[in-house]
Structures are given as structure tokens and as C-alpha cells.
Design goal:
Layout (H helix, E strand, L loop, with lengths): L5 H5 L7 E5 L1 H7 L16 H4 L3 H4 L8 H8 L6 H16 L9 H7 L6 E4 L5 H9 L7 E4 L6 E3 L6 E3 L12 E2 L15 H16 L2 E5 L8 H11 L9 E5 L6 H8 L11 E4 L6 H4 L4 H9 L16 H17 L1
Parallel strand pairs: 1-2, 1-7, 2-3, 7-8, 8-9
Antiparallel strand pairs: 4-5, 4-6
Helix pairs in contact: 7-8, 9-10
The structure holds zinc ion.
Length: about 325
């Protein structure tokens, strides 16, 4: 299981970030039995069915992939109203998700990163935001941005700032407006609203100085080519990234062929062998060295001083989980 020793606790030598990219697979892995009320997360190819979008679209679209439907309909100007209604229904569908009472992978994730670190999520669901919200009183949370919008957040049209949906801006006291969701069409406009624009700008800046990059459940689909281009540009040529590490978390028990496919979109970023892939987030540097991933990886590869791996307690209450992290939060506050 491992315990925090003094070296581990006091080593806060890195200011460079650990960046985590979250895709739909991360939410699926975190909520295999659905939300608090057993409501299941949809897939792109069953969203029309589970969110009853056929009531608006017509039954001929049942069973089709929402990305393809959106791409087709968005090219037809006469379908604007239908698309707006579909968007509203998708928003409402995702908005109702509630975190289970017991800790989830997302609780472990937000507790395992520091304020210098960043989670950039493509997901619309509210789970990550809510996990950060229920843990932020115990210690510093990582920065979080939503690359395709999110149902849990709203933004101020003046400042621009974002925060919990339905709250007021702490700068100008104006009511936040709901986040826009970016729909899965090929040409996404990342400058469409101020929150999305700022999310991409925060990600770009963090990627340029990232030491460890973890890609969790994000398959980099062809419809996200623009996103991949931004990653590549911000990361720079892999030849100049000879110290950094990239980790990919995919579904468990993949064949070597499937593992190669998962790696493919990221090949331009990976420097030679500075790459690993895991079927579980718990095997990543992120979770074996919570809140000290960069320091511990540096110690292992540059100083040849491997540290004992830690194991975040699972199947305990949220209170017990936060208590396990307490020594590390205390050490961070002292520094
Ligand atoms: Zn404001």
C-alpha cells in the first residue's frame, strides 16, 4: 500500500504541470453503473435513443451516431430549429447526472493533482466539476477546463469568468449564462464563446511546459482533428520533448494491435520510448504517485531513486478518502 514518507511529502520541486486530457471513456470507466440514480452515460451511437432525440429528429435516425447526424443536419439551413431543440434536450439529459455518494475515479483524480496541474475535459457531463466541488475544502484542486463546454458551468459575458451554473460572477455580480456545448461536427469553432476560448488558451499554455501528459479515455476521433492539431502545435516537435512522458489510459485487456491504434494519433508527440499505456488509471504515474507525480518520475528516471508506489484506498467513504490525503495536504500548506 505504501505510506507517505518525509521525502515524498516535502518534495514540491516541480512547478511544471502534469496535464490530463479526459475523453468520454474516462467518464464511462468512472461510472460503469451510471450515476447516483443508476442513470447510464450514453455513447455517441446510442445518445439519440437514450435521450429520446428521435421525438425531435424522427425515428429514421434511431441507432445512428449523433456525430454523423449532427454533421449532416448542420449543413442544411432548414434544420436549424430542429438542431436547437436537439441541443436543448442533450443539455437537459446531461444536466441531471448526479455523483454517487461513494468516491469515484474522478474524486481520486482531482485529489491526485495540485494547483499547478491541469485537467482538460472534452466531456459535457457534470461529474468532474462536481467532484472538484466536493473535495476543494480539503486541499488545493488542479485547474480544470472544458474544451467542448459543460452542463455544470456558466460564464460571465463581461469579465470573462466561469463558475458553477446559475451562480453570479464574483467580479461584476452579473448572473452567469449557461455554458455552450460544442457539438460533434468536424469544423468546431473553439472561439465561439469566451469560456471555450479561454479553456483552449489555458490548455495551450500548460501543454507548452507539461512534464507528464496523461490521456484518459480520449480516442482522438477524426472529427477532433482541429483539437489534435492544437495539441501538436502547443507540445512542439517530439525531438524537443526528450525528458517528458506520455501515458495513455485505455480500456482494459486490449490486444497489441488495438494498443497500437490507440497510440497512433499521438505518435507525433511521443519521443522514442517515453510512453506507456495502461488499462487502468490506477496504474498510471498520476495515481501511483498522487500529488507528486512529476517529482517522483524525475526522481526515478533522472536521479535513479525510484520511490515506493502508493495505492489510493478504494471502496472507502469520501471522508475516509480525504483523511488518507490529509498528511499531504498538511505538508503542502506548510510549504
Ligand atoms: Zn463578470
Amino acid at each position: 500500500m505504501g505510506e507517505f514518507d518525509e521525502t515524498y511529502l516535502s518534495d514540491l520541486s516541480f512547478s511544471r504541470p502534469h496535464v490530463v486530457i479526459l475523453g468520454a471513456g474516462a467518464s464511462l470507466a468512472s461510472f460503469p453503473n451510471g450515476d447516483k440514480n443508476g442513470k447510464k452515460l450514453p455513447l455517441m451511437n446510442d445518445l439519440i435513443e437514450v435521450a429520446n432525440l428521435n421525438e425531435v429528429l424522427g425515428n429514421e435516425y434511431l441507432g445512428q451516431n449523433i456525430e454523423e447526424v449532427f454533421t449532416t443536419l448542420s449543413q442544411d439551413k432548414s434544420k436549424i430549429e430542429i438542431l436547437q431543440e436537439v441541443e436543448k434536450r442533450i443539455f437537459n439529459y446531461f444536466e441531471d447526472f448526479e455523483l454517487p455518494d461513494e468516491p469515484t475515479i474522478y474524486d481520486h483524480l482531482v485529489l491526485s493533482l495540485r494547483g499547478k496541474d491541469l485537467i482538460a475535459s472534452f466531456n459535457w457531463d457534470p461529474f468532474l466539476f462536481k467532484a472538484a466541488q466536493r473535495n476543494c475544502h480539503v486541499g488545493e484542486m488542479p485547474k480544470i477546463v472544458f474544451l467542448h463546454g459543460n452542463v455544470a458551468i456558466g460564464y460571465c459575458t463581461t469579465c470573462p469568468r466561469f463558475g458553477e451554473k446559475n451562480s453570479v460572477c464574483s467580479m461584476c455580480r452579473k448572473h452567469y449564462v449557461d455554458s455552450d456545448l460544442l457539438y460533434p461536427i468536424g469544423e468546431k469553432d473553439y472561439d465561439r464563446d469566451p469560456v471555450t476560448k479561454s479553456a483552449w488558451s489555458v490548455l495551450r499554455k500548460s501543454l507548452s511546459s507539461t512534464y507528464i501528459l496523461t490521456i484518459f479515455g480520449y480516442r482522438a476521433p477524426a472529427s477532433d482533428q482541429k483539437a489534435l492539431d492544437i495539441f501538436k502545435e502547443a507540445w512542439g516537435p517530439s525531438t524537443q520533448r526528450d525528458l517528458e512522458e506520455i501515458e495513455i489510459i485505455h480500456r482494459p485487456n486490449l490486444s497489441q494491435e488495438d494498443k497500437d491504434k490507440v497510440r497512433e494519433p499521438w505518435n507525433a508527440l511521443i519521443h522514442t520510448h517515453h510512453y506507456s499505456s495502461f488499462g487502468s488509471i490506477y496504474d498510471s504515474l498520476l495515481m501511483t504517485y498522487p500529488r507528486r507525480s512529476c517529482e517522483s518520475f524525475w526522481s526515478m528516471v533522472m536521479e535513479l531513486k525510484p520511490r515506493e508506489e502508493l495505492e489510493i484506498p478504494k471502496k472507502v467513504s469520501l471522508e475516509a478518502l480525504q483523511k488518507w490525503f490529509k498528511p499531504i495536504f498538511v505538508a503542502e500548506k506548510k510549504s
